[in-house]
From TrEMBL:
Gene3D superfamilies (UniProt xref): Leucine-rich Repeat Variant
Organism field: Populus deltoides
GO molecular function: protein phosphatase regulator activity
Assigned GO CC terms: protein phosphatase type 2A complex
One GO BP: signal transduction
Region (Disordered): 1-82
Domain of life where this protein originates: Eukaryota
Compositionally biased region (Polar residues): 41-54
Family: Belongs to the phosphatase 2A regulatory subunit.
Identification of the protein by name: Serine/threonine protein phosphatase 2A regulatory subunit
Length: 444
């Protein structure tokens, strides 16, 4: 009787059956292992990591920088600011060790390998990896130089990506507290050399040869060498390293020559840099290099000059005589302005009156520079244009003759224009000369 009653009671489920029904602790180890596996998969797909396997399929999209819904997520540049190097970071085989059909894929893999930026503030860190990247960059330079086929759009995209990751960085200004921005102060200081130059130089050389290569199609490359890229390139002109500015000058000149569609934008962007320098900061390290590029550009202007070019002369080039650090770029500025006068002699009056407007009053060294530039402008001046600015010009020359600075008073304007018209204006010249000296004696 008791056994029959007990047999009717419900039995208590076992622990194993409970875990199978409700998903208990026995499932936890498998989920943990899968999480660790996905983490390791993400690490293996980090930018800059070598991966010799075939391209991942759609299931691996979350590990390639995509979020839910297959929308692109923000990708961070793989810069190593003191962090550990992505493993493994090993050298790839050389181009000679692979067949021609695989060279383009190898080229792209080498570009991706060079997207890792190392920290050069500690010279003892990542020595092996830095050497691997340097050797890889040299191989890329040789490959671009000897290329015998048009670069594809994929290659161009990877090239611009590698160049951008390495070059576009925040520039660290050299501390100059409590110092005037005079030219002699800046010349006495040693320029700050970038410690990463051993890599940067090869990247610049690689990009220079890529732009200059006949295998680079300008119509296709302009999609990636766009306005945003050009603006970032122009920002680098403020670098304190003169070696970097020299490369930038050459590259900008090649871009201007190859990408005709970007020419108006480049001129406008340089114009804005000059405006900011003249009227706001008066601090920029690359004004001389930008003016050197402009000198070559102005030399290629077609005649008659466009109104845009004349406005650039009046609004940007002539006001560049105003900053105190004029000696740092005066030679390039004088050449650019002389190019305008040689292109159109009618601009002589505009240039000379502009020089007289910004003529220094208390800075004798700048006054000597103005006199030298005035002589070069007068070399290209025609008689009719000379007569328009004759009176204010002689007035300023007479004022210089009464200067207390020996270099100013002894500076001789031996321009053929002045020699040609001296017999016409000799009387006026000496009138201004003696009048100014008499006035100075009267004041003393």
């Amino acid at each position: 009787m008791i056994k029959q009653i007990l047999g009717r009671l419900p039995k208590k489920p076992s622990k194993s059956s409970e875990n199978r029904e409700f998903g208990g602790p026995s499932v936890a180890p498998s989920s943990t292992s899968s999480a660790s596996k996905s983490t390791s998969d993400f690490q293996s797909n980090r930018p800059g990591t070598l991966n010799n396997s075939s391209p991942p399929g759609p299931d691996s999209a979350p590990h390639l920088g995509y979020s839910h819904g297959m929308k692109p997520a923000q990708v961070v540049n793989p810069k190593l600011n003191g962090s550990s190097v992505p493993a493994p970071y090993e050298a790839l085989p050389g181009f000679r060790d692979v067949p021609n059909s695989e060279k383009q894929n190898l080229f792209i893999r080498k570009l991706n390998l060079c997207c890792v930026v190392f920290d050069f503030t500690d010279p003892t860190k990542n020595l092996k990896e830095k050497d691997i990247k340097r050797q890889t960059l040299l191989e890329l330079v040789d490959y671009v130089t000897s290329a015998n086929g048009k670069f594809t759009e994929t290659v161009m995209q990877e090239v611009i990506k590698m160049v951008s990751v390495n070059l576009f960085r925040p520039l660290t200004p050299h501390p100059r507290e409590n110092k005037l921005s005079e030219a002699f102060d800046l010349e006495e200081e040693e320029p700050m050399m970038d410690p990463a130059w051993q890599h940067l130089q090869i990247v610049y050389e690689f990009f220079l040869r890529f732009v200059a290569s006949p295998e680079t199609d300008a119509k296709l490359a302009k999609r990636y060498v766009d306005h945003a890229f050009v603006l970032k390139l122009l920002d680098l002109f403020d670098s304190e390293d003169p070696r970097e500015r020299e490369y930038l000058k050459t590259i900008l000149h090649r871009i201007y020559g190859k990408f005709m569609v970007h020419r108006p934008f480049i001129r406008k962007a340089i114009n804005n840099i000059f405006f900011r320098f003249i009227f706001e900061t008066e601090k920029h390290n690359g004004i001389a290099e930008l003016l050197e590029v402009l000198g070559s550009i102005i030399n290629g202007f077609a005649l008659p000059l466009k109104e845009e070019h004349k406005l650039f002369l009046v609004r940007a080039l002539i006001p560049l005589h105003k900053p105190r650090c004029l000696p740092m770029y005066h030679q390039q500025l004088s050449y650019s302005i002389t190019q305008f006068v040689e292109k159109d002699c009618k601009l002589t009056d505009t240039v000379i009156r502009g020089l007289l407007k910004y003529w220094p009053i208390t800075n004798s060294s700048k006054e000597v520079m103005f006199l030298s530039e005035l002589e070069e402008v007068l070399e290209a001046t025609q008689p009719a244009e000379f007569q328009r600015c004759m009176v204010p010009l002689f007035r300023q020359v007479a004022h210089c003759l009464s200067s207390s600075h020996f270099q100013v008073i002894n500076h001789k304007i031996s321009s053929p224009t002045l020699r040609t018209f001296r017999f016409l204006h000799e009387i006026n010249f000496y009138i201004w000369k003696h009048a100014s000296r008499t006035f100075c004696l009267f004041l003393s």
